[in-house]
Write a structure and sequence with these properties.
The protein is α+β, with helices and mostly antiparallel strands. The strands form 2 sheets. The protein has a 4-stranded antiparallel beta sheet with strand order 4-5-6-7. A 3-stranded antiparallel beta sheet has the order 2-1-3, with no helix packed on it. The chain folds into 2 domains: 45 residues, no CATH class; 107 residues, Enolase-like, domain 1.
């Protein structure tokens, strides 16, 4: 969700502090999966100012409802003006080696209403193309990929309500 809303992190080490977007913390590398040095710690999470026109939603697929890690997560945020999407971000987790920003999916919503079936279908298709689940659970890979379509659609419906 922090990626979707455009949050940033402060990282501090003996050498000083740096600030990065949350999405820049993650790498597509199984060994060095964080863009953080071993001597750095996260000291702050900076949330962007909200003007009241932003909406955000998150859905998580997991084996056990109460506490389990996500095998699929979908976070979305949209800034609306008179019901029309001015800016949007959609992020998928659990279906790749790092959080995946679905920029084409978000772009499909721009200038459209969140209840526009054609725009939602285009966003769902674009997001689903990114989903490449890893073989790290007992759920079938194809099923997890298909569920990404349903979860993206559900999150967009959540934004619309």
């Amino acid at each position: 969700m922090l990626c979707a809303i455009g949050a940033e992190l402060s990282l501090r080490s003996i050498d000083g502090e740096r600030r990065i977007p949350v999405h820049a913390l993650f790498r597509d590398d199984g060994i060095e999966y964080l863009n953080k040095r071993s001597d750095e710690i996260v000291t702050a999470v900076h949330l962007p100012p909200q003007d009241g026109r932003w909406r955000a939603a998150y859905r998580k697929l997991r084996r056990r409802e109460s506490f389990d890690f996500p095998v699929l997560g979908v976070a979305a945020a949209a800034r609306l003006h008179r019901g029309v999407v001015e800016e949007a971000r959609i992020v998928l987790t659990g279906v790749g080696s790092r959080p995946l920003e679905a920029a084409d999916a978000a772009a499909a919503l721009l200038g459209r209403r969140l209840d526009d079936d054609e725009a939602v279908a285009a966003a769902v298709d674009a997001a689903a193309r990114l989903a490449k689940p890893l073989d790290n659970t007992d759920f079938a890979l194809g099923w997890r990929k298909e569920m990404s379509r349903h979860f993206v659609a559900a999150v967009i419906r959540d934004l619309a309500s």
